[in-house]
Amino acid sequence: MRTGETVSLTLPVRNGMLHVPTMGALAVGSGAAAGRTMRISISTGRLAPGNAGTWHEVRRLAGPVLRATLEDLDPFRDCQEWPAASRLSAEDWLVWRQRLDAAGRRLAKSVPAYARVLGVGLRSVVPLRPGATGLRSSTACQAFGAVAVTLPRRHRDLDALLVHEFQHVKLNALLDMHELFDAKDTQRLMVPWRPDARPVGGALHGAYAHLALTHLQQARGPAARADHLRYRTWVCDAVTRLSATGALTRYGERFVAGMRAAAEGSLS
């Protein structure tokens, strides 16, 4: 489809849907059992006439900052701690598109360096089912460039969720390239943002995510000073504990020192 080829393919059907990754899905009805296959024809980059079923195209954000898919179709998107939302209605998709586009614009003004990275690296946003209380967001280390979020009531909370979760995406990529800590170390650290002790990797991820929130709250000015100072304190406390574990590699010590400097420098 991407190259304009004309071809006939036999593809699997899952729960009544035949998925064409990154392009869309063909709804072939609930009678099609999971695991069955179906043959489809593609002509000059499109589904050829005569394919049975209703085509659902992947939804795409095309704003000035965020250019990604809103993934509410892929059968493997439900890999988070919380369940993924079902296919959005046309009305809900419009709300998500407008809210995400506005979030990108705000971030470009308040924290342009973070917004530039999101604009290049964020490839997919997976809507999560909203919970009864609190915000939900998560990142799967196997899915580079993707974040999963609920749609918060307050617009500024969406900005924070996107920045926070993409820190995890970046750090997961860095950990694929460099060992920052001894993965066999079993120490667990108390961190300010959670009631339970965290492994070294979890504490590192949390500190890096909250470093971005430190900068975001700083950019919001005097009204957000209390939040800015709280996140800054959390990062400085966490990196102090991480440095004392003895589990960091040379690269890890350099990385943690950089986080400390970035947090402390946020007051200037």
Can you lay out the helices and strands and say which pair or pack?
Blueprint lengths: L6 E8 L2 E4 L3 E4 L9 E7 L2 E2 L6 E4 L1 E2 L8 E2 L19 H21 L1 H10 L2 E4 L9 E2 L7 E4 L5 H23 L10 E2 L8 E2 H20 L5 H19 L6 H15 L4
Parallel strand pairs: 8-9, 9-11
Antiparallel strand pairs: 1-2, 1-4, 2-3, 3-6, 4-5, 7-8, 10-11, 12-13
Helix pairs in contact: 1-2, 1-3, 3-4, 4-5, 4-6, 5-6
Offer a concise description of the structure.
The chain has 268 residues and is α+β, with helices and mostly antiparallel strands. It has helices at 90-110, 112-121, 155-177, 200-219, 225-243, 250-264, and strands spanning 7-14, 17-20, 24-27, 37-43, 46-47, 54-57, 59-60, 69-70, 124-127, 137-138, 146-149, 188-189, 198-199. It folds into 3 domains: 1-57, no CATH class; 58-174; 178-267, no CATH class.
Describe the fold and architecture:
The chain has 268 residues and is of the alpha+beta class. It folds into three domains: 57 residues, no CATH class; 117 residues; 90 residues, no CATH class. Helix content is 40%, strand content 18%. It is built from six helices and 13 strands. The strands form three sheets. Strands 5-4-1-2-3-6 form a six-stranded antiparallel β-sheet, with no helix packed on it. Helix 1 crosses helix 3. The model has no long low-confidence stretch (mean pLDDT 91).
